[in-house]
Design goal:
With 535 residues, the protein is of the alpha/beta class. The chain folds into two domains: 322 residues, no CATH class; 194 residues, Bacterial OB-fold (OB fold (Dihydrolipoamide Acetyltransferase, E2P), Beta Barrel). It contains 19 helices and ten strands. It has a five-stranded mixed beta barrel. It has a three-stranded mixed β-sheet with strand order 1-3-2, with helices on both faces. α5 packs across α8, α12 packs across α13 and α16 runs antiparallel to α19.
Length: 535
């Protein structure tokens, strides 16, 4: 497995650097000395950034996430980590714990013997011991495979291509018989191509990290169930969690580690707990439907560093029999329709406001250059009105009316939902952590109801209001009951944008909805004013 991954990665990086060599050779033929120096300095800065980034991330974790690098780990996890390190002849990673109930785990560093492994309290509360091992083994897969180094080397290519593009666009070199403009265009094209190649390489290495976990733990079903919990959010509290009180969640990260609970890996899109629903395969298949059928899922994956959870589940299940286990999941549902018509309509709704605005702006400037101010005012005014109208249509599709009481599992089973099409809903549960676990600047939350966990998007009209709330109020909401009214979407992260919420008996609103409506009215009013002036 290691040799095959090394071969795939090496060939990919050789291809990337072959493209980079072409653009640099072309650039060197027409670049002036100052641009060449700028390119060299930029590459040097990127290399220095790679070398010092673990130190900078350490500071970020300490200052903004209150990470505890001295926390004790449960014995089973300590033994597993020590065994894995010994087997692969590597230093024990520096391990830190973040005291937040939202599940998260990740690694960073420069290489195999310079790695950090970060876990949250929520990981230990939400997964079983076997699931923790498989998730930690997945993270060890990234470390053993030198993913941090390989991905940094790969990401250098699109960064340099974009730098070359910017240099030729911003410099006088494009006056050199249009050679500069041509090279800038080639650089931009290679930047786009290399970006997608890097994303593909990242997704490929995720599959190999899963493979590493399987080989180390011999337990594909535990890895699959951990992914279901982390990636879909299907859960109810375990019996141990039900029998304990809130004091459990108020312990420090060190106390929780000593309790010997459990672990997981995720980003804010990957959220879940353990419970009875995990054993109900029909619930899991319902949650897989969106990723398997909705065209948005494939588009999102194309732009993602991670494969879709459903794809990983199928890949893991295909190997179950090798380890003496029945396949964890067999997605045998029949697709009832193509969903392409909904996808096409949503694409049109998504981009129409921008297209109308750009076209009207271009026409307006054309008439201004022709000294036809009246027509420019009429075109500009009509453009603003149509932009406001199409923006409002998009807004209403993202903010539908008719809130219905539901739960996380029911929301995850919906197929006709995206970042453009919402499902109005009401949820009730407990806030277990921050949207960005442990971060003092995170205003968002993770809510857990009787069926699962999902991300709550707290979004007031002004950025500064969100950050003030994050710093001074959000921590007071942790472990409290909350009733939420809002809109469920997927992008591909399942999340609910909050419209209003009730906590401690007080109902509070998010004012982005009314602010947006006022903005569209003002935009249309300006458009009408321009038309009147033009007439």
């Amino acid at each position: 497995m290691g040799k095959k991954l090394f071969g795939v990665s090496t060939l990919t990086i050789v291809g990337l650097y072959a493209m980079l060599s072409v653009i640099i050779l072309l650039a060197c033929m027409f670049m002036n000395v100052s641009i060449l120096i700028g390119l060299g300095v930029s590459i040097a800065i990127l290399i220095i950034q790679f070398l010092i980034s673990p130190f900078l991330t350490d500071l970020t974790m300490k200052w903004f996430y209150k990470i505890d690098y001295k926390a004790e780990l449960p014995e089973y996890l300590e033994n597993f980590i020590n065994l894995t390190c010994s087997k692969h002849n590597m230093k024990r990673p520096k391990i830190g714990l973040i005291n937040d109930g939202a599940p998260n785990a990740f690694t960073y560093g420069r290489g195999k013997n310079d790695a950090r492994l970060v876990l949250t309290r929520g990981i230990f509360e939400l997964l079983s011991e076997d699931e923790v091992k498989t998730v930690v083994a997945h993270e060890f897969g990234h470390i053993v495979h030198y993913d941090m180094l390989f991905m940094t080397v790969a990401q250098l290519v699109p960064l340099v291509c974009y730098f070359v593009y910017q240099m030729f666009i911003d410099s006088d070199s494009n006056n050199n018989n249009n050679n500069g403009a041509l090279i800038g265009g080639i650089a931009f094209a290679l930047y786009i191509i290399s970006e997608y190649i890097v994303l593909w390489l990242s997704r490929t290495r995720e599959y190999y990290a899963d493979e590493f976990s399987l080989e180390e733990t011999k337990n594909p079903n535990s890895l699959a169930s951990a992914l279901v919990k982390i990636g879909f959010g299907l859960s109810v509290p375990s019996e141990n969690e039900k029998s304990s009180d809130k004091k459990k969640k108020q312990r420090s990260a060190k106390d929780v580690g000593a309790l010997g609970i459990f672990d997981s890996k995720t980003s804010k899109s990957l959220v879940v707990a353990s419970g009875n629903d995990i054993n109900n395969k029909s619930v899991i298949k319902d949650a897989m439907k969106w990723e398997m059928w909705n065209p948005w899922a494939k588009l999102y994956q194309l732009h993602s560093t991670h494969p879709l959870i459903s794809k990983r589940l199928i890949a893991i299940s295909n190997r179950s029999k090798e380890f003496g286990q029945e396949p964890y999941i067999n997605f045998d549902y029949k697709k009832p329709e193509s969903y392409v018509d909904d996808f096409a309509a949503e694409l049109l709704i998504a981009f129409m406001p921008s297209l109308i605005f750009i076209v009207s702006a271009i026409l307006t400037f054309v008439f201004i250059n022709d000294h036809n101010e009246k027509m420019a005012l009429l075109i500009g005014g009509c453009g603003l009105i149509i932009t406001a109208l199409t923006s409002f249509i998009k807004f209403k599709r993202r903010h539908k009316s008719g809130y219905t009481k539901t739960n996380v599992a029911n929301l995850l089973s919906e197929v006709k939902v995206s970042d453009i099409t919402s499902i109005p809903c009401e949820l009730e549960g407990n806030i277990i952590g921050k949207g960005d676990p442990g971060c003092i600047f995170s205003e968002d939350f993770i809510i857990q109801d009787e069926s699962g966990i999902i991300f709550l998007d707290y979004n007031q009209p002004m950025f500064i209001i969100n950050k003030v709330f994050a710093l001074f109020k959000s921590h007071k909401y942790i472990d409290k009951k909350i009733k939420v009214k809002g809109w469920y979407r997927r992008s591909p992260v399942p999340y609910v944008e909050i419209y209003e919420y009730e906590i401690d008996g007080t109902v509070k609103k998010i004012y982005t909805y009314i602010f947006s409506i006022i903005l569209y009215i003002l935009l249309a009013a300006i458009g009408f004013a321009l038309i009147l002036v033009g007439l």
